[in-house]
Amino acid sequence: MFSSMAGRRRFGDLSEQEILALAVSSEEDDARIYRWYAQKLRAEFPASAAAFDEMADEEDEHRRRLIDEHTRRFGPVLPLIRREHVAGYYARRPVWMIEHLGLERIRAEAARMEEDAHDFYLRAAKASTDTETRKLLGDLAAAETGHRQRWDEIEAKNLPGDVRSAEDEADHRRFVLTYVQPGLAGLMDGSVSTLAPIFAAAFATQDTWQTFLVGLAASVGAGISMGFTEAAADDGVISGRGSPITRGVVTGVMTTLGGLGHALPYLIPHFWTATIIALFFVLMELWAITWIQNRYMQTPFWRASLQIVAGGALVLGAGILIGQA
C-alpha cells in the first residue's frame, strides 16, 4: 500500500496549470475507453457502438477546450500528469475487466465514469480555499454534468426503444449461451457424476481422508475433462456461443466446484458428521441447479426439480450401495 502511494502528489498540492493538464489527460483516457468499447460492440451491437463513438467525440471536444484554456493561461506546453500520479484521484477500471461482462454492464460503466469525474471535481471544489481554483473545479464539475446529460441524449438518439430492446435481448442470449449454459452443464456434471465415487469411497472405507482424496481427484479430473470437451466441441462462430476458451474455463471451474461441494466436508475427521454435512451440500447443489434452470433456461420449477432430484438420488443411491457391497 505504501509503495503504491509513494511519489504521488496530493490533489490539494496541484497548481491550476497541473489541474488543467490532469483534466486534459483524463478526458483523453475516457475518449480512448469509449472508442475501445465501441470497437468491441460494433459487430453485434452497432447502435450502442455508434453511441459510444459519439460520446468519444464529445470527450475529444472537451479535451480541445481544456487545451485551449491552458494555452490561453499558461502557454502551449502541458505538464505531464496523469491519474496515477495523484493520490486519491478517481481511477478507471481496466477495459479488459468490463468488456466481456455484457452490454448492460458496459453501459453502466460509462455512466459511472461520468459520475466519478463529476463527484470528484465537485468535492475538490468544495474543499478548495482558493477562489480561482474553486471556480476552475466548479467549471469542470459542470462540464461533467453536461457529459452525463449528453450521454442520455446520445443514447436516446442511437438507441430508441425497439433497438435497445433488440440489443438487450441479443446480449442476454449471448450471456446465457456463453456463461449460463456451460456453467450449468459443468455444475450438473460435477455435482451429480461425482456422487457415486465419493459416497462409494465413503461407505466402503469410512475413512474421511481417503474419501476426500477420491472426491478431490474425481472433481479435478471431471473439471479438466469437461473444460476441454466444451472448448473443443464448438468454436462459437456459427452457433454464436462465444469464445470456446471462455466456455471451457466456465465449464471446467463449475464442474470442479460441483464435485468439491460434497468432497470438502470429508476433511472433517468424524465420518457421520462429514457425511451428513456432505448430504446437506448435495441438496444445496441440486437446489442451485434447479434454480438456474428455472431462472435462465425457462424450465418449469417442478420439472427441473423432478429431473435433478431423481437423477441425483439414483446416482447417490448407486454410490452408497456399491460402497456397502
Characterization of this structure:
The chain has helices at residues 2-5, 16-41, 46-74, 95-98, 103-127, 131-158, 161-193, 195-205, 208-233, 244-260, 271-296, 301-324; strands at 9-10, 86-87. Helix 2 (16-41) packs antiparallel against helix 3, helix 2 packs antiparallel against helix 5 (103-127) and helix 9 runs antiparallel to helix 10. The protein is an all-alpha fold. The longest helix is centred in the middle third of the chain and has 33 residues, at 161-193. The protein has 2 domains: 2-159, Ferritin (Up-down Bundle), CATH 1.20.1260; 166-324, no CATH class.
Question: Summarize this, please?
Answer:
Helix content is about 80%, strand content about 0%. It has helices at about 1-5, 15-40, 45-75, 95-100, 105-125, 130-160, 160-195, 195-205, 210-235, 245-260, 270-295, 300-325, and strands at about 10, 85. It folds into two domains: about 1-160, Up-down Bundle (Ferritin), CATH 1.20.1260.10; about 165-325, no CATH class.
Task: Please indicate the percent range of residues in DSSP E strands (runs of 2 or more).
Answer: under 5%
When the domains are counted, the total is: 2
As residue ranges, the low-confidence spans are 1-5
Rg from alpha-carbon coordinates: 27 Å
Ends distance: 58 Å
Tell me the series of helices and strands, N- to C-terminal. HEHHEHHHHHHHHH
Give a count of the beta strands, DSSP E runs of length 2 or more: 2
The chain-level structural class is: mainly alpha
Note the overall shape. Answer: elongated
Summed over residues and divided by their number, the pLDDT gives a mean of 79
Q: Please count the helical segments.
A: 12
Bin the helical content: over 70%
Largest sheet: 2 strands, parallel
In what order do the strands lie side by side in the largest sheet? 1-2
